[in-house]
Each structure stands twice: as structure tokens, then as C-alpha cells.
Amino acid sequence: MSKHEMGRFNIAPDEDSMSSNSNDDFSYPQYPAKKLSVKGHYDMDPENQNFLLEPTLAKKKCETEYLPGTTSFGMSVFNLSNAIVGSGILGLSYAMANTGIALFMILLSSVCLFSLYSVHLLLKTANEGGSLLYEQLGFKAFGIFGKLAASGSITMQNIGAMSSYLYIVKYELPLVIKELIGPSVNPNAWYLDGNYLVVMVSLFLILPLSLLRNLGYLGYTSGFSLLCMVFFLIVVIYKKFQIPCGSWIENDAMNMTLNNTIYHLATQDHMHNAELNQTHHDDLCTPKYFVFNSQTVYAVPILTFSFVCHPAVLPIYQELKGRSRKRMMNVSNVSFLTMFLMYLLAALFGYLTFYGNVEPELLHTYSKIAGGVIFVVVRLAVLMAVTLTVPIVIFPIRSSITQLLFAGKDFAWWRHILITFVILALTNLLVIFVPTIRDIFGFIGASAAAMLIFILPSAFYVKLVKKEPMNSPQKIGAILFLISGFVVMIGSMALIIFDWVHVESSDGH
After folding, report:
1. Cα angle value 360/363/367 (rounded, 5°)
2. Which residue blocks in 355-412 are alpha helix, DSSP H?
């Protein structure tokens, strides 16, 4: 191969020359590079490349290496971090309250490491399988069944994530508007109706950003979204030292306290009950390290749901400048470490502020106290963060639908716009007409999230990576990871269904 031909490939020489590096997956010197036009279709349409039609090794090499990425390392970190973080950060304090500090840290560390390992498997499989599309890897591994499994899991997971973001818009934006206008606001005004607000935000902010064809352009909005979440984290940490433990109990139960005082005076048991109340108060303000109750079963699905970013990994990898598996793993390592620290700090300080009284949505818990202007700003920051995350989530859903229904067809703006609009419309309908999706999130975390983190990457790796024998440590590790995925999915689903049945039977009595 001539020097001119070698120069076309967008790979760092030091990474490509390493014999132990994953880029060896593309070392096929006996196959000449296929000459492509610089202005070809693939350059124009990076989201909808068709990697399935040409099975030859030369074509596989061209598919995964020739098309140069345009997104910098920093912007890729912003995009991947923004794909990880989301509404899940608001529920982690509740998860810690129902697992305890020590058990939560064990689960958080485990899920983070497992997610990183599955990204490693996914990237290596993409290199070996010659495709940067999750659905095409599924097709190459298990035919149409694998493609449907990948597409269904991606769609289900991301629709759930988008719904959670828009639910925050629906319930938090009216509160922000009410605080900004003041007590003179008309409570029945249309601009305080969350259903109208979520539709307007979707049409005028989310839809235009979602119509962009290149993820790299969203790196700027991703950076701003992450700054909003960092601000939220700083306020949570700051308020831990400003809110006395138990103040939220007093504010939440003022009337009950007055009634109890009258009762105590009437029965002459005031001093005895005051001692009991103090003991109860001290117990409520004591951190627990291991907790097991009926809500503990939701901890693993919530954490799994919080770390799912795998549908966005391959599109981000595809657009990474100087693309190589080693470089993308560095992007993943930085992103996951950053999100791990943010998750841990947000969960810990939110829990140490409210202990067992923390609600499933942390911002609602702060409404028990006088929040002031700072919490109006925090709500605005969180709203901006989740709103700017929705376009990132739409990309893999649209790509999945395109590859499932329109594989091999040229890019068309009408199709691009129509799919985006339909995705947003269906998600808005779900948010408007379903009163609560807490159990749905548990179901998605136990099913789709487990599929995307554990089962699919390891199954694709075992099937497509041919150069490693089945008795190799890499394949054995992937098989064990696959088995653990089924254990997590089946176990979590069984416990969640058992909790549903138990709650329904209790309500019936």
C-alpha cells in the first residue's frame, strides 16, 4: 500500500502499530484499500451509514476507519457524560436511603465498572464486526433476531430516559414560573399547566436541536448541561451544612405537633413524650450503612438505568477525531469517572440532609423547607440540563429506527424530520397521559438497561470476535458477564413484580 493510500486512514500511528492494541482488528494488508470519493455519501450522512451490504474485509476496514471523525476529545467527553447523566441523579439519594451508605457505594462502584467493561466489549466487537451501529452488530451476530433485540432495547431505554426528562419539565417548570411571577399569579393560568409547557419546550427548544445531523454540534449544549448539573451538585453540598437535621420534620408536621402538644398537656405526659420524640429525632438523623426494605429491590435497576449510555457510544465513537478504540476508551474512562463522582456526591449529601425522609425526586424534598431564590435557580439549571440532554438521547433512537426500517437507503430530510417528530410526539403523549412512570422506570432498568449493559455487548463479543478462542480469558470473562446479566435481569424483574403484587394485595385489604 502506498504512502498516499495509508495517509487516508484517520488513525494515530503509535496506536495502530501496537500489536496488542485493538486496532490490530483492522490489520488486513493483503486486501487493498478501496478508493472512495471524499465528497461521497458517507461523508455527508454519518448517522445513517449502511455497514451491512459489503461483507468483505476490505469493506469492513473502510467502514470503520476511512470516514474521519470531526469531534474533539473534549467535546466527545461532554457528549458521553451528558448521555450518562440525567434525571437519575435526582433519585440516587432515595436509592441510598433504601440501601444504606456502604451498600450503595458497593452497588454504585460495581455498576460503574460493569458498564465500563461492557463499553470495552462493545468497542472491540465494533472493530472486529466492522460496524459502528448497534443494530448491525446484532444482525451480524444473530440475524434479524439480534437486530430486533438491539433496536427494541435501545428504543425502550431511551424512550424511558426521555420521559423522565420531560416529566421533570412538566412538574418543575410550573413551580419555577410561579416563583418568578409571585403570589399574584393565577393558579389556573395556562402557562402553569405542565402539559402545555412540556409541549412548548419540545417544539421550540428540543425539536430544533434534535434535527441536527451531527452529534458533534451538541458538544456545546452538552457542556452547558453538565455545568448546570455541577451547579446543582454544589448547591446540594452547600445546603447540607445550612439545613439543620430535623427542620424539615418540623415544617412538614407543624399541625400534628400542635395537636400532640395539646394532647400531652391534657394527659400530663408531656415530659415523657418529649424524651421519646427526642430519641426518635436522633434516630432519624443517624446515617444507616446497610438498609434492606421493600424499596431496596429498585436500587440495582435505578443504578443500572443511571449508567446506560451504550446506544450513544458508537455514534460518539464514529465522530471522534483521530478515532481509535484506545482513544474512545479514554473518553469513556474520563466520562464514567466524572459521573461516578457526581453521582456519589449528589446521593451522599442529599441523603445526609434528609436521611430516611428523602423523596424519590430530590428537588421535591427541598420543598419541605424554605428554599428561596437559590432553589429557583437550581430548578432552572436542572431544567436546562435535562432539556438539553433530550436531543442526545433522540440520536440513537432515530438511528435505530432508520437502520431497522430504512437500511441501505440514502439520507432524506423528510424522513429525518418525520422520525424525530414522531419520537417526540409519542414521548409527549406518554408524559401527558400516564400519571406516574416510577414502576416503568424500574421495569426498564431491569430489562432494557440490563440488555444494553450486560447481555447484548457480551453476546455480540462472544459471537463476532473470532480471533480469540472460546477458552481464552477474554471469552470466558465475556461469558460470565453474559450470565451475570441474565441473573441481574431475571432477579430484578422477579423482585419488582413481587413488590407490585405485594403492594396491590396490601391495597386490597
Report:
1. 105
2. 362-366, 373-405
Residues 208-255 pLDDT 10s: 989 987 766 666 777 787 888 888 899 899 888 888 876 666 554 444
All 3 cell numbers of residue 437? Answer: 412512570
SS3 category, 216: helix
Cell readout for 467 is 480471533
For residue 389, give the nearest of 332, 442, 312 by alpha carbon. 312
> Does residue 491 contact residue 134 with C-beta atoms inside 8 Å?
no
Q: Distance between CA 310 and CA 80 in Å, rounded?
A: 9
Alpha helices by DSSP H, 182-218: 194-201, 207-210
Buried b (16+ CB within 10 A) or exposed e, 207-217: bebbebeebbb
CA-based R_g, the chain, Å: 25
118 pLDDT band, cuts 50/70/90, is very high
Q: What is the dihedral of CA 211, 389, 82, 346, to 10 degrees?
A: 180
Mean pLDDT value across residues 301-324: 85
The gap from C-alpha 483 to its chain's centroid, in whole angstroms, comes to: 23
pLDDT at position 63 over 60: no
Runs of H (alpha helix) within 268-412: 270-284, 299-307, 310-318, 325-354, 362-366, 373-405
Least confident stretch, 293-302, 357-366, 374-383, 431-440: 431-440
Going 106 to 392 to 380 to 226, the CA torsion angle's sign is positive
Can you name the residues that pair with 71 across neighbouring β-strands?
Answer: 320
pLDDT in tens, 389-430: 788 788 878 888 887 888 778 889 999 999 999 999 999 998
Residue 425: strand pairing partners: none
Give the integer Cα–Cα distance in Å for 249 and 433.
33
The residues that bridge with 320 in the sheet, in sequence order, are 71
Asked if residue 247 lies in contact with residue 369, where contact means CB atoms within 8 angstroms, the answer is yes
pTM: 0.73
Note whether 23 and 90 are within 8 A (CB): no
CB of 310 within 8 A of CB of 197? no
Give the span between the Cα atoms of 355 and 332, in whole angstroms: 32
Beta carbons of 15 and 324 less than 8 angstroms apart: yes
* CA triple 194-198-203, angle to 5 deg: 150
Nearest Cα neighbor of 461 from 449, 446, 450, 473 is: 473
Taking the alpha carbons at both ends of the chain, their separation in whole angstroms is 78
**Dihedral sign, Cα of residue 149, residue 150, residue 156, residue 157:** positive
Evaluated on CA atoms 386, 388, 389, 395, the torsion sign reads positive
Question: What percent of the chain clears pLDDT 70, i.e. is strictly above it?
Answer: 74
